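lol so apparently i was supposed to do this last week
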Amino acid sequence: MPDVFAAPRGHQLRLLVKQHPGATVGVAFIVLLLLASLFAPLPYDPTATNGSNALKAPGAEHWFGTDGAGGDVFSRVISAARIDLSLALAGTLLSLVVGLPLGLVASGKGRASDWLVRGLDAFQAFPLLILALALVSLSGNRLYMVVVAIALINVPRYIRLMRSEILSLRESRFIEAAIAMGATPGRITFRHLLPNVWGIVLVQTSLTIANAIVVIASLSFLGVGVSAPTPSWGGMIRDGAGNMSSGEWWIAGFAGIAVLLCVLAFNQLADAIGDRTARTYR
Amino acid sequence: MSDLSVAPLASAAEDVPETVLDVRNLAVSIRTPDGVVNPVKGVDLSVRKGEILGVVGESGCGKSTTIKGVLKLLGPNSTVTADRIELAGHGDISGHSVKQMRGVRGRAVGFVVQNPFGSLNPIYTIERQFYELQKAHGTGVSKRQSRDIALAMLDGVGIVRPERVLDGYAHQLSGGMAQRVVIALATTLSPPLLFADEPTTGLDATVQAQILDLISGLVRDEGRSMLLVTHDLGVIAQYCQRVVVMYGGEVVEEGSVHDVMVTPTHPYTQKLIGSVPKPGEKLNVAR
Amino acid sequence: MSLVEISDVVKTFAARQRGADPVQALKGVSLSVDEGETVAIIGESGSGKSTLGKAALRLIDVDSGSIVVDGDDLGSLDARRMRAKRADMQVVFQEPFESLNPRLAIGSIIAEPLQIHRPDLGTTEIRRQVVQTMERVGLPEASANRLPGELSGGQQQRVGIARAVISRPKFLVLDEPTSSLDLSIRAQVLALLAELQQESRMAYLFVSHDMHTVEWISDRIAVMYLGEVVETAPTRQLFDAPTHAYTRTLLSARLSADPRDRHAYKAFAGDATVRQTSSEAST
Amino acid sequence: MTLAPVKGATVRTPRRVSTPWRLVLGRLGFLVAALFGVMTLSFLLVSVTPGDPARLIAGPLASDSQVEAIEAELGLDRPLGERYVDYVAGLVKGDLGTSYYSKQPIVDEIASKLPATLSLVLLAVLLAAVLGVVVGSLGAYFRGRWPDSVGRLFTGIFQAVPDFFLGLILIYLLFFVAGIAPAPAGQLAFSESPPPKVTGAIPIDALVAGDTALFVSSLQHLVLPVLTLALVYAAYFAKTARTTVGRALNSQQVHFARAMGLRERTVLRYAFVESRTTIVTYAGVIFAALLGGEAIVEKVFAWDGIGTWALNGILRLDLPVVQGMVLVAGALTLITYTLLDIVVGLLDPRIKHA
Amino acid sequence: GGGGGSSDGGSDGVLSLAWSSTPTQLDPNVYTGLSWVHAVDGFMETLVEYDTSKASDDTVLGVDAVKPGLAESWEVSEDGKRYTFALRKGVKSEYGNELDADDVLWSFERMYSNPASLQAGVLLKSANVDPDEPVTKIDSHTVRVNLTAPSAIALSVLAYPIDGILDSDETKKHVTKEDPWAADWLAKNSASFGAYKVKSMDPGKEIRLEYNENYWGEKPEITEVIAKAVPDASARAQLLMSGDVDAIAEPPIDQLKKIDESANAEVSIQPDSNRHNLSFNLGDKALADPRVRKAISHAINREAIVESIYQGYAKPANSPQASGLMAGQPETGAYDPALAKKLLAEAGVDNGLKIDLSFSTARPGPYAENLARLVQSDLKAVGITANVKGVPSPADFEAAVSDRTMQAYLYSERPSQPDLGFSLFLYLHSGSALNKVGFADDEFDSIISKVLVTESGDERDAAIAEAMDIVVENEPIISLVEMPDLVGISSDLKGYVSLPTGGMKYDELKRG
Ligand SMILES: Nc1ncnc2c1ncn2[C@@H]1O[C@H](COP(=O)(O)OP(=O)(O)OP(=O)(O)O)[C@@H](O)[C@H]1O
Ligand SMILES: Nc1ncnc2c1ncn2[C@@H]1O[C@H](COP(=O)(O)OP(=O)(O)OP(=O)(O)O)[C@@H](O)[C@H]1O
Ligand SMILES: [Mg+2]
Ligand SMILES: [Mg+2]
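anyway here it is w/ adenosine-5'-triphosphate bound
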């Protein structure tokens, strides 16, 4: 239903930028990285190799040095963003698409939702990384399974989050007021409950992306999921892990820093959104 | 009050000046993420010996901040300035360090706030909280003695079976009892001055009256003074001798309760007093 | 027959804590409210005042007893008819901010009852009525596009009232609508409620702690004690000649805001764990 | 013990109230049900995954009939339901099957690998909790000032760094560059042999055997992996501690304690005891998450625990190992949660003295 | 205690080794990977053994480089089908039981008890040993091994550790009804007549050998061997360089220089038959045409690969078979992108051939990923798009190799017998279980079948040359790199010679 009156929104974004410079820088970094990985002309072909130019230290010619096959680490780190970030985003999207409706169901009253949550408790007792690894590797290392694995890890989190949030919202006065007005359950859900969980869902989504980046890196570190020659940060860390011992730190180093920065950016964003949500609406 | 309680200021009792607390030009500024706020802008007030000074004003006008400012209880993101804060027996405490303030708090000034449950540590027994207080002020009182003192204090605030309260925890108390425990704690070291920040808000009317009777008794019977923050004009009218009216971080009117409430001079005070509903009268509603 | 007839209502809550006894919040309460009448409910905390208010609106289901509003027994209505019926009965809560959806603009909040019950009205008409109601309760039109968090407590409570009255209900439950407001604002809101009632002859069930307020606004007062109505009387009569002991205690605990009539406090021997601090105790 | 009905105050007591025994029994009941769920899921995980374990066991030179024979031996040719019943029956007898790869009983393998993981995880959580709580509490205490800013900077970074990457960096810095840490190759130096097995945890067994040199060496080998995990998870603790201790420091009881002239030390302690249940809960949750969650770190340090074991199991398609791991981690997690509920209940008088 | 300079726990008689893995069991009948062969090699005594004194710098020890082991001497019949061995007298096992013909008989019987065992299925089979009566007892100390046809590799097969002789008297004590061949006991215990016996073993973690006091030969300097599993290659290198271990297997290729430069250790480089290949599923249409394969072969710059990934420690593979097996083979796969393009054009796939190229870091090794990337780049230059895929699970990878589900993949192969005929048979004969590429050429098959039943000599060499021509024409497997036997070894350890078995003669090592 269209709102008869609506509050202006642009203001919120401006405050976010102003009061959370960390998050702003983080988002700018992610956007730049994504754009660069998709469109920017990289100094070298990220999949190219050059046998006679292996393991060169960072310098003017190769800003981040070269790896064991003579590939340009800078180009590879940048271009790895493409697959790593898009998998993370796809996994997060799938988690949302599955998790939100289930979360809504789980926050209903009654036994069914109770049991769903109990089942989740048991499920969350599983070693999730091991499960994701088993899922991807036993299914023949398909990339879409990485997305599924991320969803598998995160859907329960969304469900629990939605449930706890909605259950406490249901106790709140304005829901009671809506019932007293004669609002239908559908109206209560979509007009009163859901809009009030978006903030926290957004926070969780940012955290989920951060977590997904780490999960993807962990999987590729173990050689599962994204595989060479497609550059991926986890794969580069694995590739460079051995070289670290002989002093060639830059292969794993820069890839690891890329992961760190992305995760940091999304964590910051989550903090900022959480802070704004709390300040505006609570 | 019990004889067991420690009265460290007894020797100074003879030359207690007429004014127990004298605050001049107190101002507080607080840095927040949204900018600096100045909830208190130059407040003057004084509490005389043996009186209850009421402080009224609408929500957010700086009542709590004023008394926290006097005791330097505001967080590190705040700045408190004052020309002078004279506390009887301690001189000007406006320049006191946190460490010096520790000696003042609890010993020279007792403090009671609105939410008694929130004021008590939920994890420790009540007895332990009495003992921690003794320890903090280095009174050299043993655990046993502390318990005896606490028993006497609880008895003094009208608690029937104080042993059971002492061995229990805060959540096992009713609101009225919890507030009594807090008052007992606040007066254990016999501070000559009590700050009470809305000590009865949220309590039932009957309980509220009991608590007010209790604290006014503590002032009357033991020669204490009290600064009582409230937004209930009934409380002011019934229990206070003098009243300070605050508005927007400033004192707008001060005087005896009778003067201020019967013949208010400041427009805000007039509006405040006019807004108490009186049956049969049309409400004095200023939009 | 009064507009609202509450008879023999019993409500027991399962204990909130495992192992504790269930709470009998209402032990057979009967009460009626007439058109244009304000009936106040007073009593100490936990005596069941709010529960009664909610039961009267069927916001909670009762164990037994009946609630008849304008000829309809609420207990016999199915969910759909109950929702339709809610156009006639509304509520204003104590906590103004918590009663408003923090994500909706003030205008939308106020428009909601109309959107629910009068979908036939077009957006323009709804908008017109919202603006009109806002003006009536003293809210600037410009605040229609603002969020609840941007208003003061008094304004928030006006929003709550505007929302409650826009669908022109016949019966309004006011659960301590002013106790979280500052004194001066409280007076304004009370005056507003009185005016609105005069205009549309609504029936008010007014839950309150505050004797001054009750004394001023209500026609009749019901005193609740431990889930029961122990005394019901017209306001003046109750204040002048309380019959029940608990009522007397309540009255004696009332503090006059006039320093000229200071009087001694009379304790009520209800709280056995606390020794009486004042001489005179009555039962 | 009831002193008075909770009445006469708008401030109500906290909601979570229950007697300890009720709590314990309730949680144990749930534990049993959840364990059953974990068991079933782990069975399904292995039973429905594609792949031909019999061929894997038989080896590359085996004929089809030999593969079939092995299939029959494993009972893989029988219906799912029957196999499930067998599986559960086996579990009840403590039989989790046999590894395809090592041919060892899964129970034995777990028994030999679990102590290594447990000692690693326990120490890491302990260190993380201490570090994190100190940093977080300082941050909360000095909110907005430099200790807070510095703390938050490190918290942010360590929370964002993948643990295995941190492990590599620490190896690079502390082992290869500085040379102060021992080689990241297991729990003891190459030339050392584990002490006679008592608990299975090498440091403890070394102490039991009275071999101090071995004890010291085992501790030295624990340093890097423990530090890796501890730094990362200390960040989580710090964040939680900053919030909860911060909230406690802002609570009225702390203001009151200050107003009563209590020492800052005491005031901090008051704030801390109020937040300790949250922190203990958090420690339990992290401990549970690390069982299996630290597999990659184990791999980085060639730590012979259940994490590495499970990783290798997966890559070798050694399904009984995967199953065993899931079961053990699941069970341990559930047990941890149960213990946690009980401990928290006992730590908090609001729950204990209902 | 290690060698080197660092803290030395035990005496110098202790040899410490870091392997990438250690066996999970020791029964010679149960194939469990290479570390198992190496471990068994440590304690199992064979009838004949390789003679390290015949080692050379460029070729591996050949099939004829054998010397007496448990057999003091042997005779070969005229028709080359009967090998009569005179067993050494007074040889005692670690349990004190004396070696006799019954031990030999029982050992062989045991090998054939499992027709899928490596011995029965591959080794003895390719040496034409008669499965119906492999060994005949002549007297208590004389046995005859029966062949169905002459074989050039009969002796080298008998020198292979898992074909060694068990102490049947002791082993039989551990036989049970369910376990008629004492497999359970042999999984953790040794029962042979070698210089060492198993002291202890922790499956997958470590194995310890110690000197067998009853050993018939000279007492070796090394009296105890400890091999532990250190899966991480750089960790192994680190242990070696710090002097904690005496030798490491599979040293990390990118750290070989470092090892050589270190004070304590060096890299031993000796000839070997190990090759890193680009293998195909020849059943695949696109790759069925030999011209395409040749084109691929010419497209790859092996020199660059060797220089970058292998840091010059390996050699480009420019011959159809391992050069260590035979010198002077025809040259193949010279780097010539132009020729490659031409060949592709001839084959009609000049506009865009796409192949899937899989790899596993378990085989050939961690550098497989970079190897795949280099190959991909090279192929791209001639217009072939290689879609590189990593297979994380080694088990999955091996299964895919066996099932021929991968179009092209990187692989490594090392024949267990140092013989060209054997190698050709093993990897390319359509009847061989290890012909994983699926090469099937009738002419080749018939030549190799003949080679297998021909004794060493000119006739055999001529047949092999003929077969090699077919291989050159077809290039069924594209070899990229010839790996020497690389072992990181403590500088003070002398006497290491690479064996065709892949193992090490600990009893010949000396410190100094
Ligand atoms: N720590 C703080 N940070 C930001 N603003 C603060 C802080 N403490 C107080 N304020 C602001 O200072 C003003 C005065 O607050 P204070 O609590 O003293 O009011 P009060 O008169 O006690 O009100 P009430 O009757 O509601 O208790 C308010 O506007 C409040 O928002
Ligand atoms: N949902 C519920 N579940 C369990 N018990 C409840 C519930 N709601 C109310 N109660 C109990 O019912 C009793 C009456 O509560 P009610 O809220 O009606 O009191 P009240 O008179 O409105 O008190 P107050 O003045 O504090 O608002 C109390 O003991 C309360 O604890
Ligand atoms: Mg205040
Ligand atoms: Mg109520």
